[in-house]
Design a protein that fits this description.
- Chain B: Residues 349-379 are annotated as: Disordered.
- Chain B: Pfam families: Ribosomal_S9.
- Chain B: It comes from Maylandia zebra.
- Chain B: It is found in: Mitochondrion.
- The complex is a heterodimer of chains A (269) and B (379).
- Chain A is 35% helix and 14% strand.
- Chain A has a domain at 68-76 and 106-259: 3-Layer(aba) Sandwich (Rossmann fold).
- Chain A contains eight helices and ten strands.
- With 269 residues, chain A is α/β, with parallel strands linked by helices.
- In chain A, strand 6, helix 5 and strand 7 (153-155) form a beta-alpha-beta unit.
- In chain A, helix 4 packs parallel to helix 8 (231-258) and helix 5 packs parallel to helix 8.
- With 379 residues, chain B is of the alpha+beta class.
- Among the domains of chain B are: 56-106, no CATH class; 139-230, no CATH class; 244-350, Ribosomal Protein S5, domain 2, CATH 3.30.230.10.
- In chain B, the strands form two sheets. In chain B, strands 3-4-5-8-6-7 form a six-stranded mixed beta sheet. A two-stranded antiparallel sheet of chain B has the order 1-2.
- Chain B is extended and about 85 Å long.
- Classes of the chains: A alpha/beta (269), B alpha+beta (379).
- The interface between A and B is medium-sized, with 29 and 25 residues.
Chain lengths: 269, 379
């Protein structure tokens, strides 16, 4: 299980689309596949029930209702870069090329976005730390505001080398690393892959990333092929992530009230 | 053969030299690295070398110990332990621990130091950090930039709304700042309780300036004023001494002057007699040398008011020449209040109002004087 997690982290092994990631590794627990049960028994039965209930249904948080293909089209998500900028590994996700402009396949985007939002919702439900990363100067403020509104964290500034890999020295001993990193653009300002993707893979942190036609989708856990340069598209993504996270957190509060827990535990278990 | 031997020996020696030099450089590099890591640890100190260093509990403990020690010291000296001030402490310590050291800062001391602010733990019991920009590393600085940019966007939206209504005017409502300056980098670091680089500081100032240039930025005046400090007024104009009248109705002015180690003060009276007294003595007696008397007279002679004023001078310290120079400066300054601005400017141009900054240069070790070296011997 751990080995499998490591291989998928480091080599970007593609698992089947239906199942979501499954394995406890180090401090991180991933959302289990619908059939499997989490291996470690929980302290309280009520907490266990709260945590297991979302895993019984495929789309427990109904994230598919948040967007439609028309929304994606109106937000210009299908527009890729020119043919010359195309990354070889993005070719499966492209619908075609028209007058040298790449068009991203929105059906695939729909599926990938549903998976990504579902995963984000589960992480937020279990009280995980979500880090929004984007190195695009024009959307930095928007991303930071989105993160503040969700109650999560953002990093749209210069990425210091050891932020994830040298965290104990940079922040202090006993710091908790993010449980999910969402890249609203996987490239940095010099059109190279953002260091955070590689570092997250090294630290076994799952990533969700909006990959444009000039990006490398291999190390991203949940790639979402789509446009990352148009303001309309990025505003759409921010809105969607904010709504899923808020929805998941509200749901968690509801469940705790229903099952009569007064002090909510927010540890990922 | 021999040549090749010499060459190989030379190259071998050369290699040794480079080896030793590289070892030296490696050693220095290692020590530099050690120093760098130490300073790096100091900078992002939190983990290594004393994480308990300046926490609130540590500071409180130090303050308590200081108070207890102060009471013990007062009891030892037989004085009132309630009203024992810092000066009393210093006096007691110099009495109890007499030290012959020249360096004042190396002597025994009992004082509370100013503890630099230290960031408390940044995350809660569940591990979630409190600040949403925690993972950037420089949360206070980046949150400041985030807020600043938010304010700029707000001003732009305000401008757009006014433009839509047709009420926009270009030169309306720029912030009036008054005599103030931006916070220096050190002051900003103190405010944010974290270190920032010069690059970061420059960007912050640029963004602030950008906001100030926008019309309708007066809505954010309070935010901007938080990052400005009042300028200590440093006017380029000469401070003219006040013209007072004594009980006989005679106008007089007082001024001071310094040169090397001499201090002087002069009272210039508009009597009309030209009488000069230095330290109670007549100036002819006090300055037997003509050069010193010339220095004294020069300001009056330059402005052509030789017989008009009475001088009452006091001077101390230094030698005869520096006392004369100090008096000359004091006389010129006192004269300013009797003259017009144009005359004052003429005096300034002549160099009468400029204090002479030259002081005695110290003697250096390995040399005979300040500049004189020992006699160079070839062997």
């Amino acid at each position: 299980m751990a080995v499998r997690a490591l291989t998928r982290g480091l080599l970007g092994f593609r698992y089947s689309r239906a199942a979501t990631v499954a394995s406890p590794c180090g401090g991180h627990h991933y959302v289990t596949a619908p059939s499997a049960k989490p291996p470690q028994p929980q302290a309280g039965d009520v907490t266990e029930k709260i945590l297991n209930q979302p895993l019984e249904k495929a789309d427990f948080f109904r994230v598919a209702e948040l967007f439609s293909l028309k929304d994606l089209f109106d937000a210009r998500v299908h527009l890729g870069h020119k043919k010359g900028c195309r990354h070889r590994l993005m070719e499966p996700y492209l619908y075609g090329c028209r007058l040298d402009h790449d068009i991203i396949n929105l059906d695939q985007t729909m599926e990938h976005l549903q998976l990504a939002l579902n995963f984000t919702a589960h992480i937020a439900y279990r009280g995980g730390i979500i880090l929004f990363v984007s190195r695009q100067r024009q959307f930095g403020h928007l991303v930071e505001t989105t993160a503040k509104d969700c109650g999560e964290y953002a990093h749209t500034r210069y990425w210091q080398g050891g932020l994830l890999t040298n965290a104990n020295i940079q922040y202090g001993p006993g710091v908790r690393l993010p449980d999910l990193i969402i890249f609203l653009s996987t490239l940095n300002n010099v059109f190279q892959q953002h260091v955070g993707i590689r570092d997250a893979a090294k630290m076994n942190i799952p990533t969700v990333g909006v990959v444009d036609s000039n990006c490398n989708p291999s190390l991203v856990t949940y790639p979402v092929p789509g446009n990352d340069d148009t303001p309309a598209a990025v505003e759409l993504y921010c809105r969607l992530f904010k709504m899923t996270i808020n929805r998941a957190k509200d749901r968690r509060k509801q469940m705790e009230l229903i099952h009569g827990l007064s002090a909510p535990t927010s540890q990922i278990s | 053969m021999a040549a090749s031997c010499v060459r190989t020996v030379g190259s071998f020696l050369g290699k040794c030299m480079t080896c030793s030099s590289s070892i030296n450089t490696v050693a220095t590099q290692v020590s530099q690295q050690v120093e760098l890591t130490y300073s790096a640890l100091c900078r992002k100190n939190l983990a290594a070398a004393g994480p308990e260093k300046f926490t609130l509990e540590y500071i409180q403990k130090q303050v308590e110990e200081y108070e207890i020690g102060k009471r013990h010291l007062a009891n030892m000296m037989g004085e009132d332990s309630e009203n024992f001030t810092q000066e009393d402490i210093d006096r007691s310590i110099t009495y109890l621990f007499p030290s012959g050291l020249f360096e004042k800062t190396a002597r025994p001391l009992m004082k509370l130091i100013h503890f630099p602010l230290h960031k408390a733990v940044q995350w809660g019991a569940d591990g979630r950090p409190f600040h949403f920009l925690f993972y950037t590393g420089k949360q206070s600085y980046y949150s400041l930039m985030h807020d600043l940019y938010g304010k700029i966007l707000k001003i732009e939206k305000h401008q757009d709304r006014l433009r839509a209504k047709g009420l926009f005017s270009q030169d309306a409502q720029l912030i009036s700042l008054g005599p103030s300056r931006w916070l220096t980098k050190e002051e900003l670091e103190l405010l944010l309780v974290e270190t920032i680089s010069t690059h970061d500081y420059d960007r912050f100032i640029k963004l602030m300036e950008h906001m100030l240039c926008m019309p309708y930025s007066s809505t954010e005046e309070e935010f901007v004023q938080r990052y400005r400090r009042l300028l200590e007024a440093q006017s380029l104009k000469q401070l003219v001494p006040l013209l007072e009248k004594d009980e006989n109705g005679v106008a007089f002015s007082t001024a001071e002057g310094r040169r090397k180690t001499s201090d002087s003060s002069v009272i210039l009276r508009d009597c009309g007699s030209g009488h000069i007294t230095v330290n109670g003595q007549d100036y002819l007696q006090y300055f037997p040398v003509l050069q010193d008397r010339e220095q004294l007279m020069f300001p009056l002679q330059f402005m052509g008011v030789l017989g008009r004023f009475n001088l009452e001078c006091k001077v101390s310290g230094g030698g005869r020449s520096s006392q004369a120079g100090a008096l000359r400066l004091a006389i010129s300054r006192a004269l300013l209040s009797f003259l017009s601005e144009g005359d004052g400017e003429v005096m300034r141009q002549a160099g009468l109002l400029t204090p002479d900054p030259r002081v005695r240069e110290r003697k250096k070790p390995g040399q005979e004087g300040a500049r004189r070296k020992f006699t160079w011997k070839k062997r």
